[in-house]
Every structure is written in structure tokens, then in C-alpha cells.
Amino acid sequence: MSVSERLWNETAERRSRDELQTGENFPVASRLLPARHRAHLLNVYGYARLVDDIGDEAPPDERAGLLDLVERDLDRVYAGERPELPAMRNLARTVAACGIPAEPFRRLLQANRQDQDVTRYATFDDLLAYCALSADPVGHIVLHVFGAVTPDRLALSDKVCTALQIIEHCQDVAEDHRNGRVYLPQDDLRRFGCVEDDLTAAVTPTRLRGVVALQAGRAARLLAEGAALTPRLRGFARVAVSGYVAGGLAALAALDRNAYDVLGGAPKPKKSRLLVEWSRTLGRR
Q1: What's the CATH number where 41 sits?
Q2: Does the pLDDT at position 23 exceed 80?
Q3: Looking at per-residue confidence, does 30 or 215 come out higher?
Q4: Residue 172 burial by CB count (10 A; 0-12/13-18/19+): exposed, middle or buried?
Q5: Which of the listed residues 152, 243, 271, 282 has the most CB atoms within 10 Å of its CB?
């Protein structure tokens, strides 16, 4: 294994562990889960963080090769062979224990490969197709971790995960643009009269706020539909998914509170609002 391969693997593993411990990517619910579930989620996040860091932060001329390395290790996981990367060896334990199929992990890889070639999305439907690769597989994996997979739950999970991805794109407009990507649909930007320079302003122009508000509204509707998933779950699966839904609702409230000014810094949800939304979601019937 080369120095760069080892570095990206170790960085991803450390970040995923820190984020799960602080609840950054798994609000509220992470602290309430048993150790076995936390360990499996940590292993899944280790994989997702490894793939994301390669796609976003590795030197551009090394990204394809590093993603190929991860894919070869994924093949080893499902062939019952020992992977090279420590993060992939961790993932292998979770795959074996929870019976997770390879397809969602491959879709996450495909999303990061697409990020290397596609930097703009013409329509909202095009963005939804990207979310089917970059976000929806995470929900499938989580449901497998909790042994809660059914066709109707997977369909509702897709709505939740797509909504969360769109919310993240709204929050990260400035960061994404610095990385050479624009996830806001191009036809919406044109319809509101936005130009490329709007994405580099110190304060979000009114017309760009309109585009962000439109995407946030779409995400809110998806999240409201997908929230029907929580009453269909029991035990710790319900606790975990309620945390995801609550995080999305709190993030939408933060965007609205900041009047969709996303260029001055990504609006952060208030912990108090997060707790309120989690309690409401968890108690939903």
C-alpha cells in the first residue's frame, strides 16, 4: 500500500470515529444506541468517509486510482478475502454480521466517480438521480444494520436520505463552489436570474436565496413524506432514524432562520431545536 493510500485510509477512519462520537452525522440518537449498533455504524461511516475524502480531497490525479483500490477491497469483502485497507476490514465485519448486500456500497463509489466528471446538474430531476447514488444507499445500509429492511421502509428511507442530501447541498453552496461543483439545479438558477458570481458573494444575493429556499422547500416535502418511516420501526431502529429526521428538520429551521443566507457560513441547527424535533419525531404515530 502506498503512503497516500494509507494516509487517506487513516484520515477517513479517524474522522468517522470523531464524528460518530460527537454526533455530528448522527444527531442525538448516536448516544442512545447500544455498543454493537454504534460499532457497526462506525464501520459504515469509515467506509463512507474514506470514499468521500478520496473524491473531495485527494490530489485529482490520484482519485481514480484510490477509488479503484477501495472497489478492489470491496470485491475482497464479498469474496470472503482479507481487504488491504483497515477501514475495509472493519466494514467486512459489519457486512458479515448484518448481511448487507454490496449494491449500496457500490452506488456510493459510483456517486464519487460521478463527482469527478459531473460538476453541474441541469434540473432537479437530475439532482434526484444523483442523490439516488450519493444518499439513498446510506439509508439502505442503516436499515440492514438494524435488521429492519422491507420494501416499503426502503422507499420511505430514500425520501428521507434524498431530503437530507438536498439540505446539505443548500448549506454547503459556498464550499461546493470552491470545490468546483454546483448542485443547485441550473434551470432554477437561470429562472431566478442568478449568475456564477452570485455563488462567490460575501452575502447571499436575494435571487440566490430564492433558489436555496426552493430546494429547501422541496427537501421539506420529501422529509415530511419520508417521516412516515419512523412509526413503522421499533426499538433502536426507530431511535436512530428519528435522529436523522430530526436533524433534517432542525437544519431546515436554521436555513429559514438565517433567511437562506448560506454564503456567510452554513447555518447550524440549534441543539434545542434538534432535541424538540427528535422528541416529536420519535413520538410520531
Answers
A1: 1.10.600.10
A2: no
A3: 215
A4: middle
A5: 243
Provide the angle, in degrees to the nearest 10, between the axes of the packed helices 136-145 and 235-257.
150
Please say if the pLDDT value at position 27 is more than 60: no
Alpha-carbon 132 to chain mean position: 11
Ranges of beta strands (E only) in 152-270 are: none
d(CA 41, CA 124): 30
Q: Which of 134, 200, 145, 191 is nearest to 173 (CA)?
A: 200
* C-alpha cell read off for 207: 435571487
Q: Are residues 7 and 65 in the same domain?
A: yes
Band of pLDDT at residue 271, cut at 50, 70 and 90: confident
Give the model's pLDDT for residue 100: 98
Q: How far apart are the C-alpha atoms of 157 and 143, rounded to whole Å?
A: 9
Q: How many CB atoms are closer than 10 A to CB 84?
A: 16
Cα(282)–Cα(149) distance, integer angstroms: 19
Residues 130 and 148 in one domain: yes
Residue 208 sits in which domain range? 118-284
pLDDT in tens, 43-60: 999 999 999 999 988 999
Model confidence pLDDT, tens digit, residues 193-209: 999 999 999 999 999 99
